[in-house]
Amino acid sequence: MLSTLFSRTLAALATGLLLAHAALADEAQIRKTIAERFPEWPKVDEVSKTPLAGIYEVRLGTQIFYADETGSYVIEGSLIDTKTRASLTEARINKLTAVDFSQLPLKDAMMWKNGTGARKIAVFADPNCGYCKHFEADLQKIKNVTVYTFLIPILGGDSPQKSEAIWCSKEPAKAWLSWMLDGKTPVRNMGVCSTPMERNLEFARKYRINGTPALFFVDGTRVPGVVPVEKLEQLLASSSAKAASSTNN
């Protein structure tokens, strides 16, 4: 009995070692092939297995690709879990580009709050973004929240001019809400005014904020796009609880 159990244990260990060795061999081969065939690419930072047999994730900085065991074929796109309909690629990138809320440059954001302002959210938005306007209206229904809005004029047209006019007004947050909620065109104050737009855009490029609105919560949770009010309430509650728990521990 004991000898049989021992033999099975040894067999399991041997199998595990063989699989680990095979994975390392695949990783080395993928790195080698990609370096040879794409010399203009940056160095591969990481190669790891995916839930899909024979397919590996290849990471270059915050860029994600997929490859076969030899690196002979590369796939560009999203890996979707059909059961949950979740994008594993998006989740991975969000983790790689996660932002510590305490490190956000809040001086470069407009701020307004409802109630106590105890719960916090940061939003990256463009003044010409229709989804942002819809989300801004939903935000007005949320109680006890502080909202930090970072202007990133990425949609073209007069987005840069509107962003500058909003930021350079006497009360930027008020001008922002008047435009987003009531369609009142912001009037820029005369005189010299420096804006954080270039810094905001650089931050967006660094953390791959490619669309608006982009939402960031105090526990590090990042959500692209609009979420319903009910979901937003859940995210604010859970993120605040997680952040408080982390602080207490």
Give a verbal description of the structure.
- 42% of the residues lie in helices and 18% in strands.
- The protein is an alpha+beta fold and 249 residues long.
- The two termini are 47 Å apart.
- The longest helix has 36 residues.
- The chain is built from 7 helices and 11 strands.
- The protein folds into 2 domains: 95 residues, Nuclear Transport Factor 2, Chain: A (Roll), CATH 3.10.450.70; 148 residues, Glutaredoxin (3-Layer(aba) Sandwich), CATH 3.40.30.10.
Give a quick summary of the entry.
This protein is of the alpha+beta class. The chain has helices at 2-37, 88-96, 130-139, 159-167, 172-182, 197-206, 229-248; strands at 46-49, 56-60, 63-67, 74-75, 80-81, 86-87, 110-114, 119-125, 145-151, 214-217, 222-224.
Q: What is the fold-level CATH name, i.e. the topology of the largest domain?
A: Glutaredoxin
The CATH architecture designation of the largest domain is 3-Layer(aba) Sandwich
Number of domains: 2
Strand content: 15-25%
Instruction: Identify the overall geometry.
Output: globular
Lateral strand order in the biggest sheet:
7-9-8-10-11
Rg, nearest Å: 24 Å
Terminal CA distance reads 47 Å
Mean pLDDT: 87
| CATH homologous superfamily title of the largest domain | Glutaredoxin
